[in-house]
Amino acid sequence: MPTFDSPNGWHTSYVTKILCNRAVLGEFQPHRRVDGKRVPDGEPSRAYYPAIVDEALFYRAQLAKSERRISGKGRKGAAFTNLFSGLAACAYCRSPMKLENKGAGRKGGTYLVCDGALRKLGCPGIRWRYRDFETSFLAFVEEVDLDGLTNEAAESAKLRLASDIAAVKGELAQVEQLMEKTFAVLVTGGSIEFVTAKLKEQEARKAELLKRHHSYENEREQVVSRQDQTHRSKEEVRELIERVQREGAPEMFKLRARLASHLKVLVEHLFVAPLLVQPKEHKTIRHQKRDGRYFEVWLRNGPGRAVYPAIRDPLRYDEQVVVWDGKGGPPRVSLATAIDLSHVTPSRPN
Questions:
Q1: How many domains does the chain divide into?
Q2: Given this model, what pLDDT does residue 244 score?
């Protein structure tokens, strides 16, 4: 169906405005301006226009809209359903990827699908089951700190250590300033004995602070290394993902909201390609033809990665390509083909 004036199809927000307007029931509400604001002028005229929506259907739509507003804006639900809202885009046409609920049944469930396909703009309407996509993304994008997000104790430890390290650095800066002032006293003719005693005192304090700083850094590295997904077994990764996806678990909304915020900071671009056979004109991260559905993610301060998850097991991938555009040299590429998650991601370049 053609739009009134936009070549980009019907947007959900525009359709919503139309369906919430009583003009669809045939009513006309005259208005006038009061202090620059548009306000109703008198009672509406019924049957002014031909009705295009049944009145009972109109009120059912308003009820559904009000229930969604009461239970929480958007489609997040009690478990913050879509972690990639506003982040995932179609790899073929760059339209946003939307979450579509197909209801119950064998082919039911929630899926990621291109908004351009939903609006009949020519993009193939192939869907990727949301649970499978989320599982593969969390399993193979190793920079996602699942352990830190699901383990409040570890997260608290990292925050405490970051605070301790910042405090020690502040003390070290203060000691450096005192040492400079002490040297200045010597230059202006101060007592050598006094200056020497003060410098020894400050050197001892500096050595103690450096020792504490080194200790805090080591402790933080140990916490981070315990959370490093590249050293986890397949079962450990599966358990972490199950904790994120466990329906009805306490604090589920809070946990998934925190994870969604983490992804917004971590990910710069996320392109989703659900087709099993790629269009001829489409190029992947490797700039060569490769069939199989995949997702391509570029991190703000990290590598670009294309992952081709196995069709029947979202915790396996058929191929993964990691591109490093590191400073001072050309991109370095690591490949892994038909490798189980227990062997996990390609090694990082030095």
A1: 3
A2: 78
